[in-house]
Amino acid sequence: MKSNLTFISDISKKEFPLADKVSAKTIRNPILALIENDFPDFDKTKFLAIEELNMYREKYISNYLLVEIGELSNLEAKVINSLSEDKSLVSGVEDELGARTVGQKVADQVAGFGGSWKFIILFGVFIMLWILANIYILLNKGFDPYPFILLNLILSCLAALQAPVIMMSQNRQEEKDRERAKKDYMINLKSELEIRMLHEKLDHLIMHQQEELIEIQKVQIEMMNDILSRIK
Question: Which of 20, 186, 4, 170 is nearest to 89 (CA)?
Answer without folding.
Answer: 186
